[in-house]
Design brief:
mainly beta, 16-stranded parallel beta sheet, binds 2-acetamido-2-deoxy-beta-D-glucopyranose, Pectin lyase-like superfamily protein, Pectin_lyas_fold
Length: about 400
């Protein structure tokens, strides 16, 4: 009798809170240290068809995965709980679809990815073959995790490691949060951007650590409302809007908020880059950078409208992209090069309404005094600037 009294309320609670149904990949033939492409696809198919919330579990072991595309829409919220490690083949020529990504998730509403596990791209071999910076006909390496048209979703407490190319690609998504998300790859791994986010709206990257060989977060065209808060970057190339302008059909970028972030030993801190001699006439507006710590960052604050790596373009016709409504406030720390701030704006469409306030950056090296570089920009200043910013602006073109 006592027993019943104790447990009735608990049972009622379980029924009421509608525990998600569990779809363990083991049930679908997924075994540790073996390939789980089919098991994961079968589990996804059933979980996605369920009319109540479902959770797919990849248990605390190591599994091998060649390539999967998980497609919605699903009938109810769906969670992919990765507790263990999912490993890519180290030889990327083994991938069934050479133009595809490693794990692609498309058209899902209310997706959760969680579990504390690792997506291991095993990129070490592929990085040695990546010459895409120099060779336009290079072999395109697959992305690790590709999210397309995902809405109202959260990806938290998982790690993506040693991707062969960008770690995460976010396109056409809306209201998606990455939290306690870890990206881990060596500083010398090629083209391994942490998150590349474009053509999306309402994306949040919070409380995350991104260590990689290329951009920590790169923002592509058509991005609206991106909030990056309490993210630590480094090694890597920093948080970058762009490069933009190369494609004639690119869309405007608006509402980028970077707050309470730390950059450790990165090549850049915050950066906006656009191509000269490029067709796109875009606007980049509402960029806000606040409360940021730079720890030994080579180029802490950069606008580069003459971005032209490997001499892939000509500098004679300026970028047609207009940068405006930008604030850069409370940036502290150390620069690893003497140029602490570099604002190189377009001669055709100068930067407008850029507000700079409370900069406190020191240079500890011996390549001369700390300086700033400013062309085609007249920032409004608030608070204190150390070093003085655009002090030589009268001489700039
Ligand atoms: C955004 O997504 C989260 C997570 O699914 C959800 O809780 C929230 O209600 C969504 N916000 C809006 C405005 O739909
Ligand atoms: C954000 O940065 C400000 C200024 O450095 C600091 O006062 C505040 O505590 C930080 N907030 C968080 C949540 O880290
Ligand atoms: C982003 C990325 O490159 N992901 C890698 C993750 O692992 C797969 C497995 O082949 C690699 O192919 C991907 O390149």
């Amino acid at each position: 009798m006592k027993f019943t009294l104790l447990f009735l309320p608990l049972l009622a609670h379980i029924v009421n809170s509608q525990q998600p149904a569990i779809f363990d990949i083991g049930t679908y033939g997924g075994k540790p240290n073996a390939n789980i492409d089919e098991a994961l696809l079968s589990a996804w198919k059933e979980a996605c068809a369920a009319t109540t919330p479902s959770t797919i579990v990849v248990p605390r072991d190591t599994y091998l995965l060649n390539q999967v595309t998980l497609v919605g829409p699903c009938k109810a919220p769906i969670e992919l709980q990765v507790q263990g490690t999912i490993k890519a083949p180290s030889d990327y020529t083994q991938l069934p679809d050479k133009n595809g990504q490693w794990i692609t998730i498309n058209y899902v509403d209310h997706l959760t990815i969680s579990g504390g596990g690792i997506f291991d791209g095993q990129g070490k071999e592929a990085w040695t073959k990546n010459d895409c910076g120099k060779n336009p006909n290079c072999v395109k390496l697959p992305l690790n995790l590709s999210f397309n048209f995902i809405t109202n979703s959260i990806i938290h407490d998982v790690t993506t490691k040693d991707s062969k190319n960008f770690h995460v690609n976010v396109i056409g998504c809306k209201n998606v949060t990455f939290q306690h998300f870890t990206v881990s790859a060596p500083g010398d791994s090629l083209n391994t951007d942490g998150l590349h986010i474009a053509k999306s709206e309402g994306i949040y990257v919070l409380d995350s650590v991104i260590q990689t060989g290329d951009d920590c977060i790169s923002v592509g065209d058509g991005m609206k409302e991106l909030h990056i808060e309490r993210v630590t970057c480094g090694p890597g190339h920093g948080i970058s809007v762009g490069s933009l302008g190369k494609g004639a059909t690119e869309e405007d970028v608006t509402g980028i908020y970077v707050k309470n972030c730390t950059f450790i030993g990165t090549q850049n801190g915050i950066r906006v880059k656009t191509w000269p001699s490029a067709p796109a006439k875009l606007k980049i507006t509402d960029l806000h950078y606040e409360d940021i710590i730079m720890d030994n960052v080579e180029n802490p604050i950069v606008i580069d409208q003459e971005y032209c790596p490997w001499n892939q373009c000509k500098l004679d016709s300026p970028s047609l992209i207009k940068i405006s409504q930008m604030t850069v406030k409370n940036i502290k720390g150390t620069s690893a090069s003497p140029v602490a701030v570099s604002f190189v704006c377009s001669k055709t469409v100068p930067c407008e309404n850029v507000e700079v306030g409370d900069i406190d950056l020191a240079y500890n090296g011996n390549q001369g005094p700390i300086t700033t570089k400013c062309t085609n920009i007249k920032p409004n200043f608030v608070g204190k600037q150390n070093p003085p910013i655009c002090a030589n602006a009268a001489h700039s073109s």
